[in-house]
Structures are given as structure tokens and as C-alpha cells.
From TrEMBL:
Domain called DUF2007: residue spans: 1-66
Organism from which the protein derives: Roseomonas fluvialis
Name of the protein in question: DUF2007 domain-containing protein
Pfam families the record matches: DUF2007
InterPro entries referenced in this protein's UniProt entry, alphabetically: DUF2007, N-reg_PII-like_a/b
Length: 70
């Protein structure tokens, strides 16, 4: 797995996941359950990861959409 984006914004995270899903790329959100510990204040970023073999294509999809990658 490769981390391609990091964000504290749940809306952006959802948007990135939809972009990649539309391109047929499966994603995994790391650190998603930290919100239970932090109380939902958004202090800890969530990491968006893809399979190693999908990394190049995922970065290209996000770059084409004007999104930064990690």
C-alpha cells in the first residue's frame, strides 16, 4: 500500500475516494478510527492509500483533477 494523500478534511477525503473509485482504483483510509480518540476535532490527518501497483495511475487521476498528492 502507498499513501497518496493526507487530509483532516472529511469532505476532501470523500471527494478523493470518489475520484479514484470512478477510475476503478480501490482505496483504503488509514487512521479513520482515530476520530473516536480525538473527539472529532480534526487534529489528526487521515491517510488515503492505494495498492502499490495503482499508485502511478492514482496520482495521475488526482493531479488531473487539480488535487495535490502526498
Amino acid at each position: 500500500m502507498r499513501v497518496i494523500a493526507t487530509t483532516t478534511d472529511p469532505v476532501r477525503l470523500s471527494f478523493l475516494r470518489v475520484l479514484l473509485a470512478d477510475a476503478g482504483i480501490d482505496t483504503l483510509v488509514l487512521d479513520a478510527h482515530i476520530s473516536a480518540i480525538e473527539g472529532g476535532i480534526g487534529a489528526f490527518p487521515r491517510r488515503l492509500a492505494v495498492a502499490t501497483e495503482d499508485e502511478r495511475r492514482a496520482r495521475a487521476v488526482l493531479t488531473e483533477a487539480g488535487e495535490e498528492t502526498a
